[in-house]
Amino acid sequence: MSDDAPATPPARDAVASPGDIPLSESPPTSSPVAPGSPVAPWRRYVAIGDSFTEGMCDPDPDAPDEFVGWADRLATLLARVARVRGAEFSYANLAIRGRLLDDVTDRQLPLGLALRPDLISIVGGANDIMRARVDLTALAGRLERAVETARSSGADVLLATPTDPAGAPLIGALRGRHAIHTANVWTIARRHGCHVIDQWGFTALQDWQMWAEDRIHMTTEGHRRVALAAFAALGLGPHDLGPHELSSHDLSSSAVGLLSGRAWETPLPARPAPGRAQWARQNRDWAAQYLGPWVRRRLTGRSSGDQRLPKRPELTRLNVVD
After folding, report:
1. Which residues contact 284 (CB under 8 A, 6 or more apart)?
2. Alpha-carbon distance 5 to 3, whole Å?
3. Dist CA 113 CA 47 (whole Å)
4. Which of 104, 129, 208, 288 would disulfide-bridge 12, Cβ 3.0–4.6 Å?
């Protein structure tokens, strides 16, 4: 989700405690593997986008007021794959919360490609979809031109569909827009040989336990699972990680040899739904703390990302620790 979208999946109370989630032994059949993917591991990964790729709301334990997020977690996994294969790995993240797709494609993309990545994730459009008016055909055209530019540079491209907002308050009314954008992402991916994180079909994300209190951004658990889905969408699995045990920051404390199945797609155990009075109180508090400020920003033409800079503007070597 994004800065401009103050609601998400169907309601359930509380946030889950992150647990061990095994990776899949094989990539999902629905995500095309780019025909030009290198035999050697990717060595230079650049992520561009909005608050989703910046990592809100997955707090960085080592940096107050900063976030980790799915892209950082994916980079950690890719760094491990590179190390197993005897290569170095570098990572940059240029995403900034609240950005529309034109900022992602017209400003972030040139900066990202100047870093000469061999893999770039381009995820945006959610803020555009939440606008009162949006031309979804034009939005898809902008995204496709960005993909064409990235692919012509020699980089592999990772895209992501929106999540399915079925049954969600407020944003559920825009399900049709999300569905069209999802179809457009898949069409672009097929035309240009991109990898795709299929969040639309990721039903475990339709659970409030995967979303933060602002009902806009994912929790650590949500980002953790998306990173695992991205790893699988890139055609990678536990066998690519080597015989090392992953630390909790690397997404799991289970030994690689024990990782099997697609447990990261499994929904969390259901928690009791809040009573009517509790739900009304939660909605009132949410509206005061999150919806009101969002409306004021929209009315005044401001964004939560104003004056913010990318958290990782340059490619830096990413070291992994056993």
Report:
1. none
2. 6
3. 10
4. 208
Instruction: Output DSSP code: residue 106.
Output: I
pTM of the full structure: 0.81
C-beta separation of 173 from 126 below 8 A = no
Q: 158-189, pLDDT tens digit by residue?
A: 999 999 988 777 778 899 999 999 999 999 99
- Provide the pLDDT confidence category of residue 57 given band limits of 50, 70 and 90: confident
Q: 310 near 109, Cβ under 8 Å?
A: no
List of domains in the chain:
44-276 (3.40.50.1110)
Residue type, 191: R
Strands 90-93 and 312-317: antiparallel
According to DSSP, residue 255 is labeled B
For 244-289, write each residue's pLDDT tens digit. 534 434 444 333 333 456 777 888 787 777 677 765 666 565 555 5
